[in-house]
Fold this sequence. Notes:
Chain A contains 2 helices and 12 strands; from the N terminus they run αβββββββββββαβ. Chain A is α+β, with helices and mostly antiparallel strands.
Amino acid sequence: MLPMxxxxxxxxxxxxxxxxxxxxxxxxLASAPAHASTQGTLGATSQGSVQISVSVPSRVQISNLxxxxxxxxxxxxxxSRPQSPCVWTxxxxxxxxxxxxxxxxxxxxxxxxxxxxxxSYAVQxxxxxxxxxxxxxxxxxxxxxxxxxxxxxxxxVAGSSASLIVTVAPGQxxxxxxxxxxxxxxxxxxxxx
Amino acid sequence: MKSLRPALAVRCACIALLLGLFVGGPAxxxxxxxxxxxxxxxxxxxxxxxxxxxxxxxxxxxxxxGGYNVRASGSGSGGLFTLAGVGAPLAYEVQWNGxxxxxxxxxxxxxxxxxxxxxxxxxxxxxCLLSNTASLIxxxxxxxxxxxxxxxxxxxxxxxxxxx
Lengths: 193, 164
């Protein structure tokens, strides 16, 4: 209930109270739902209505990732195995960033082989499928934004929406011990924008 | 002729009044009322991968013997049960159950009448003072939520009750 103004109050007080009343009214209007339920009346038919409201949270999903196998790569050239994962997000812009972390010290992109010196590799990401080059990623740092073309989670329509390119430079290949497996884990974190 | 005793006359008048309230006169059209409707506010969902439902109790009262039907229409195009928001319309389902406190019921189709329902709210419960009588259930399906654009959605569901 709005405050009542005594007719004997001064103009100053009346103005202040009037502003207060306006503020209260505006606040009440702002916090009220756009519509509220209406009740029916007694009659040959009776009609009522309800307001339904919901807020859908931002969601993102990366899928269709496969292990990278660079076994028996030829020396003297870049070893590369591009793949096409799916990134789906339900944000209005479909934008996302990706953060890659290796299993090396300080999230470095390195492969280990026991006590041998680790070798480094590079990670690139492209916002479209079927690419062999992309934007170079820095360990544990969010990338620039990409836009997903996936319409549904898991890219059930298109199959993929991005490209992940893992490469090992010739210089690193030459330092590797022969017939020795080098392994590591690359973790990808996708954030919707 | 011996006149009726005053107490008996009052008793007869009360009975007649009650019968009138419960049944109504033969020439009087049956009347119905839907009441106790409340908004459905799902808030910010915590999941989009499972069905989410809310139920609300309503009161259907009638001057007749209790039979009624219900017809629902949404605020989507052509009366569809859809919510408008930042993305494509978000479809939802509407279910009706003729008893209170239910979490599921018969699915309503936009603009189509669901018949054969009965309410216990007669006569003295016309104003729904005694109890609610039915359940209105709104269901958000995971299949719709998982592909919806993030953001706020809202819409209006209109219900029309008629006696049978």
